[in-house]
């Protein structure tokens, strides 16, 4: 069964301000809270309110799907994109800038957000290729800060290289894997 996350007006406003370059997520969140909307009290999705999994996909090649499922009894915002690092890497993989959604994805209890992980260059142009066994995942907390990381076991024989990248959180699998 396909679960589609609800996109809220507050999330749309947050993204619009970020895309326009006129403010920060923290400033927009503060404005939303000052406005007194019921949406303003929604927390960021985090390690404490989600379950994170990663799986291979048949298409596109050299991709995996990262899924964050809201395990709490309240909605949460999946801000921006996950921050990923393979094994003991000291840097996070770059984000696919073109994958910015129209709005921040809001997860109701039991719903999921998705991010596509491009593992390596399909044409072999990547460098530093290796097999990775774990993925360190952290969340954007919505104020320009990053949460602590959770380690997720990768599928066996996951090959990564210097061309690895991740998308922004998306509300459906198809959008996450189109990049």
UniProtKB/TrEMBL annotation:
It comes from the Bacteria. Pfam families: DUF4232. InterPro entries: DUF4232 (IPR025326). Residues 45-170 form the DUF4232 domain. Keywords: Signal. Residues 1-27 form the signal peptide. This is DUF4232 domain-containing protein.
